[in-house]
Amino acid sequence: MIKTGIILKGVGGFYTVLSEEREYVCKARGRFRKDGVKPLPGDIADFEDGYLLELHARRNALTRPAVANIDQLVVTAAFSRPAPDFLLVDRLLLQAAGHAIDAILAFNKSDRKDDKTLLAAEGYRAAGYSVVICSAKSGEGLDELTPLLANKTSAFAGQSAVGKSSLLNALLPALSLKTGDLSAKTERGKHTTRHAELIPLPSGGLVVDTPGFSLLETETIEPWDLAALYPEFKEYIGQCRFSECLHHTEPDCAVKAHMKPESSARYERYLIILEELTEKRRHRFD
Ligand code: GDP
Ligand code: ZN
In Å, what is the CA distance from 30 to each residue of 33, 130, 156, 271, 286? Predict the structure, then answer.
């Protein structure tokens, strides 16, 4: 009987497929190689008698880590060490939005909370994002993060050393057990630098075990499409005097007229990204 499941990992030509809470190990038929399609973790596959038969169309695919069909990006920043890079945070949120991937924010290292970063976190909350203040070290906020990961496939992304791996380990006690007393991160790194893996969470969700985020499709957001990717600006677009308003220097701009004080920092960074996209576009047609 043909079954359908989600590929959790592929190692040495063997694919582990999760279907109705059971795991099956399958090989790919030669056809996949012929078609130049490499099954990825996250792919929905039909399989039978130990063979993958068919992959369902992908909603999205990342290259680093190589996974398909991500539902949600957990954009992770730290309160300090490293100091939060909000421009990177915004870029990751935009990348996700541009590919119709949901995004939530995790501000980690809450054992080093400061008012300035808390205010920035509030800004993202005001923009409409789910924001979790958490610490992989103290465990604060993990009970808030857990339900946000339920019944979805999530990937962590963010600056190096913000604590993505630590959060994964804190959320996945089973994984830490698997890697024993040795540094769980180093161990996992060894096994998965080449092969990302989806790990089932107790809540029913799946999480990519390798942090990172880069999309296969070379994305080009047009300058005039940028503002629509900001949840806090979206509702006013279309109310500006000019239909092609970039919400910058144009008169009678509804986005600027409705700007809340807590949006101003995001807006300043919007202008930086807008300038970059405009510049890129200029070069594309040189
Ligand atoms: P990654 O590069 O984003 O995966 O970051 P890691 O998980 O490797 O963490 C980087 C460093 O931050 C490590 O030394 C962790 O022990 C530390 N770290 C992680 N979470 C916390 C936290 O909540 N509080 C503090 N103070 N340190 C943390
Ligand atoms: Zn406008």
Answer: 5, 44, 33, 50, 44
**Which amino acid, 175?**
L
Q: What is the pLDDT of residues 193-212, one digit of tens each?
A: 457 999 999 888 999 988 77
Q: Closest ligand 1 atom to the C-alpha of 169?
A: 7
Between vectors from CA 83 to CA 229 and to CA 123, what angle results, nearest 5°? 40
82: CA distance to ligand 1 center in Å? 10
State the Cα–Cα distance between residues 274 and 18, nearest whole angstrom: 42
Asked whether residue 239 carries a pLDDT value surpassing 90, the answer given is yes
Phi-psi map region of 205: left, alpha, beta (phi>0 left; psi -120 to 50 alpha):
beta
pTM for the whole structure: 0.90
- Tens-place pLDDT, residues 248-282: 999 999 999 999 999 999 999 999 999 999 998 88
Two tokens at 36?
Answer: 């130049």
Q: Which atom of ligand 1 is nearest to the CA of 162?
A: 3
